[in-house]
């Protein structure tokens, strides 16, 4: 759509700007403020320059939790995106079952995050949980509170359970927007179902899939509540993702300087990745 | 191949329902039964857990608090997002693209980063432990989302509608309220749904910004694990009840959920 140039449109944006700025800029400046100061308590602060940033970027602890975070995010993206597309392709296109599927599939999305964590915490308990008991009786030695591998398995399974539906809903929205005529044309040409997927469905889903990747990336990078309730970062530090580590430093040890420096690095990492996705997307739109 | 395709969604839905079933079935068990033995369904069916929740104000007020701030947040987010989305979809103005991206960056901000500064800011302006505090804090990620979704819907409405209305002598606000808003009613529904959803499920900020008066239900649940021993039955019942508002909302917007994302433009 060709838009008119109208700088007065700023007035329409002002309320949003005021609210978001109040929420974003003041807290962000507080964090920046802490990140460049040193404190010995009693609200006395000293300028410390960029020492916290240097310390953070060199700290093995930060590297370890960043590594775990990246492993987690890319694992769940690699599972949820293809799985979501497959389920969306297999869903009915018309009739009463569409509503049934949509309502049931959307349910995990509307459960408060700590309830999701608590639910899986109980579900996976080796003695009294359905999942844990079943796995153990099948002969697996499964205990997510003791073995890091099991904790990771549970964490990833929980996230797949929680968020795959988002990918399904998005892909499904892309699929139903394809006009029937496209399929009829493909049928006349005798296209295989792989060809239909590759040349009709996938290009049509590209936009919604990019939204899905972007949303899943941002949200999984920010994940805090579910793992904190499920494993609390344990056993040991094996499932301590970035935000869990951050809260431990900021509220557990009350090291505000390092925590603030870490927050900013963390935010910049997300921003950088999202900016890459965003530019890739807008470039595709222009083509 | 085609005939077996119903299998995939069915298996997926069963996988989704299993943990939910486990939670619901546990809410009808006594704590002794939960800890004592492994049972697939409640042997001594009890409503005791639900009775506790509906009679103890520290429990049921949690639901009331959550619903109040979620509604304030939804109304506020959608109300301010409407004119902004209109501006983004109809006009080009100085810095519009940068502003749009900046708004989206706030959707990326980790709540863990903002929890402490939020606490200090809201204490300083004197609204700590009010419903308004949580509602305002949640606008940080809901306004960008609402603008994003509404802008998508508005761009789908041809500009001729605006022009015809002006030719017919409508003032801008009369056109906006009488004609434009009814035209994109579905979009408003979808935006409101997503605001409701993200405000309802968020806990970290809601917990940090409240103490007693506005404490959300999700935060009330953390106390069962700590203070009164390990009351799993009660926890399960409270959890089950948090699923219900979401399920009701989904049922009403089921035909729009998928569409909302598809039309939302990045």
N-to-C SSE string of chain B, H for helix and E for strand: HHHHEHHHHHHHHH
Structural class of chain A: mainly alpha
Radius of gyration of chain A: 23 Å
Give the CA-based shape of chain B: globular
Multimer state: heterodimer
Query: Could you give a short account of the major beta sheet of chain A?
Result: 2 strands, antiparallel
CATH superfamily of chain A: MetI-like
- Mean pLDDT, all residues of chain A: 83
How much helix is in the residues of chain A? Answer: over 70%
The termini of chain B sit apart by 35 Å
Mean pLDDT, all residues of chain B: 83
**Could you say which overall geometry of chain A the principal axes of the C-alpha atoms support?**
globular
Q: Count all strands of chain B and give the number.
A: 1
Q: What's the CATH superfamily of the largest domain in chain B, by name?
A: MetI-like
Terminal CA distance of chain A reads 16 Å
- What fraction of the residues of chain A are assigned to beta strands by DSSP? under 5%
Low-confidence stretches of chain A: none
Supply the CATH architecture of the largest domain in chain B.
Answer: Orthogonal Bundle
């Amino acid at each position: 759509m060709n838009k008119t140039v109208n700088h007065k449109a700023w007035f329409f944006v002002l309320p949003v700007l005021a609210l978001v700025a109040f929420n974003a800029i003041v807290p962000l400046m507080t964090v920046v403020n802490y990140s460049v100061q040193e404190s010995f308590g009693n609200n006395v602060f000293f300028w410390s320059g960029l020492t916290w940033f240097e310390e953070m970027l060199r700290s093995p602890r930060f590297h370890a939790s960043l590594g775990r975070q990246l492993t987690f995010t890319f694992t769940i993206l690699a599972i949820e995106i293809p799985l979501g597309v497959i389920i969306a392709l297999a869903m009915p296109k018309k009739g009463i079952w569409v509503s049934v599927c949509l309502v049931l599939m959307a349910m995990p999305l509307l459960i408060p995050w700590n309830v999701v964590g608590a639910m899986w915490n109980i579900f996976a308990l080796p003695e009294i949980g359905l999942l844990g008991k079943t796995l153990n009786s099948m002969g697996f030695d499964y205990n997510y509170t003791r073995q890091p591998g099991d904790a990771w398995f549970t964490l990833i399974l929980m996230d797949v359970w929680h968020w795959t539906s988002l990918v399904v809903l998005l892909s499904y929205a892309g699929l139903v927007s394809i006009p029937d005529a496209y399929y009829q044309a493909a049928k006349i040409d005798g296209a295989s179902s792989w060809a239909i997927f590759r040349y009709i469905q996938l290009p049509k889903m590209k936009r919604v899939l990019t939204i899905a990747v972007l949303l899943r990336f941002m949200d999984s990078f920010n994940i805090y509540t579910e793992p904190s309730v499920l494993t609390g970062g344990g056993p040991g530090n094996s499932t301590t993702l970035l935000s869990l580590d951050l809260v431990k430093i900021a509220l557990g040890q009350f090291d505000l300087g390092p925590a603030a420096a870490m927050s900013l690095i963390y935010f910049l990492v997300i921003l950088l990745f999202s900016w890459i996705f965003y530019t890739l997307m807008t470039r595709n739109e222009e083509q | 191949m085609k005939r077996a395709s119903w299998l995939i969604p069915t298996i997926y839905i069963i996988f989704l329902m299993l943990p939910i079933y486990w939670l619901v079935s546990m809410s009808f068990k006594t704590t002794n039964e939960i800890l004592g033995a492994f049972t697939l369904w409640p042997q001594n069916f009890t409503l005791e857990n639900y009775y506790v929740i509906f009679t103890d104000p520290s429990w049921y007020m949690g639901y009331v608090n959550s619903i109040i701030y979620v509604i304030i947040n939804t109304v506020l987010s959608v109300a301010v997002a409407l004119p902004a989305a209109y501006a983004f979809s109809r006009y080009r103005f100085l810095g519009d693209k940068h502003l749009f991206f900046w708004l989206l960056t706030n959707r990326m901000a980790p709540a863990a980063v903002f929890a402490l500064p939020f606490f200090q800011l809201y204490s300083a302006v004197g609204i700590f432990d009010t419903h308004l505090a949580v509602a305002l804090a949640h606008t940080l990620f809901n306004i960008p989302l609402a603008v994003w979704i509404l802008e998508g819907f508005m761009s789908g409405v041809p500009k001729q509608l605006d022009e015809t209305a002006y030719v017919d002598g409508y003032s801008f606000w009369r056109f906006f309220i009488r004609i434009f808003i009814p035209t994109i009613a579905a979009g408003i529904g979808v935006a409101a749904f997503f605001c409701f959803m993200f405000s309802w499920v968020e806990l970290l900020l809601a917990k940090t910004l409240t103490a007693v008066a506005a404490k959300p239900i999700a935060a009330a649940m953390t106390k069962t694990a700590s203070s009164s021993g390990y009351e799993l039955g009660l926890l399960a019942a409270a959890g089950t009840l948090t699923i219900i508002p979401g399920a009701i909302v989904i049922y009403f917007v089921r035909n729009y959920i998928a569409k909302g994302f598809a039309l939302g433009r990045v």
